[in-house]
Amino acid sequence: MTQDVPSKAGSAVKSILSLATGTAMVRVVSSLSSLVLVAWLSPEEFGLWASAVSACAVLVSLKNFGASQAYLAGVTGSLRRTRKRAALHNLCLALIALVIAGVYFSFGRADIALLVALVGLTIPLQGDADLLYSETVRQRKNATAVRAQGIAALLKGGVGIAIAILTGSVAALAVSTIAYHFIVEVLLLSVAKKERNSVEKTATDSVIRSSARVSWAINAMLLSLPLQIPFLVAQFVASAEQVGILYIAFQVSLGISGMVAVPLNRVALSTLASVKDHLRARLAVDLGGVFVAGTTLLCAVISITGILLQDVLPDQWQTAVLPSVMLLASLPVRILTPIVDGLQQAQGKWWQGSTYSGIDLLGTGLATLVAATGDLVLTALALSVWKILLGLTRSSLLLRNAGGVRLAALQTVTVIGGVLLILSPSGVAWSVATVVFGAVAFGTSLRLVSKDG
Question: The whole model's pTM is what?
Answer without folding.
Answer: 0.76
